[in-house]
Amino acid sequence: MSRTQRGWDFDLPNFDGMYFLSASDMFVASGGGTGTITRVASGEWSLRISTTTATQVVGPLSTILLRFGQQDDLQQQFGSARAGGAQGLPVGWPNTFSTSSVSAGSAVSIPVLSSVNFAVGQAILVDTVGSGVQEYTYITAIADGTHVTATLANAHTTPFPIAANVFTTPAGVTGTPPYTGVTEFTPVTSFRPKGVLIKQITPRYAINTANAATNTIGITQTIYNNGAAPTVSTILTNAANGLATTTTAQPYVTPIPIPVANQAFTTARNVDVLVEWDITNGTSGTVDLFGIEIVCSFNYD
Questions:
Q1: What is the model's pLDDT at position 112?
Q2: What b/e readout covers 174-187, taking b as 16+ CB neighbours within 10 angstroms?
Q3: Count of Cβ atoms closer than 10 Å to residue 274 Cβ
Q4: Are 203 and 292 in contact (CB under 8 A)?
Q5: I need a surface site. Which of 81, 98, 132, 232 has the fewest CB within 10 A?
């Protein structure tokens, strides 16, 4: 292959990704229960829950490499009316957030945290893919440091991001050649999946001596917004989800699928994805939490 300064963009993600939270990656929230990293046997360590108080255990997935998406670098446009290429600008810059909801219309004044570094005539991407109303438009005026003007095809609920030079229109044909006729020149209309999509978790744990009173687990995604309340969504509802509560001589390994409707690539900025594991012991005994396997699809190409 000849040398190139460009990256290769792949449409389809790899489906066999695995990520592991070990006992030492999880921690007990303050104000409820206690947990201690415990050597159960050689090569076997747990976060041991040893009180009858309801105990909240958190496993952050913050160290997983996520992507918010970037604009395709098109070497040819095939007559497309949309501008492409990086134009020598940093990907995803400049960017800001709305401070008020807006309605569809022409010459819409969009209140933003800051209009600094934006320019009249600049192409911008408004809102997120997950909103269902993401759109691509152009700035027609900048009234002041906290407003930009653009024509909007959709209404948008604050807070929504506004960014320039970002991942906008996928290019090329998806699938294995040969391609037929004009399909070679037809761009893909859905965005390329990038980053990580969680499909299943598998907690590993042992319930010792006495049955546990409760054993539930869930996953949330929290997006932090400047000057506004965080936006929390559920990836897996915190519930029993098949987890056991009876004592066992050997560890449980319990696969829990993520509902298909909740499976999506995490593309938001300033986001935390957290696993919360809640346990209440019985009258005596302990619970050993050995870790959690995270099964995911991933696309970093």
A1: 93
A2: eeeeeeeeeeeeeb
A3: 16
A4: yes
A5: 81
Helix count and strand count (H, E) for the chain: 0, 18
Report domain extents, the chain. 14-67+192-299, 95-164
Q: Quote the tokens at residue 63.
A: 């160290």
- 148-205 per-position pLDDT tens digit: 999 999 999 988 989 887 654 455 555 556 655 555 555 555 667 788 999 999 999 9
What is the fold, at CATH topology level, of the domain defined by 95-164? Thrombin, subunit H (2.40.10)
Q: pLDDT (tens digit, 9 = 90+) per residue, 233-278?
A: 999 999 999 999 999 889 999 999 999 999 998 888 889 999 999 9
Residue 182 φ then ψ, to 5°: -75, -10
CATH 2.60.120.260 fits 14-67+192-299, yes or no: yes
Q: Which of 246, 256, 219, 251 is nearest to 234 (CA)?
A: 219
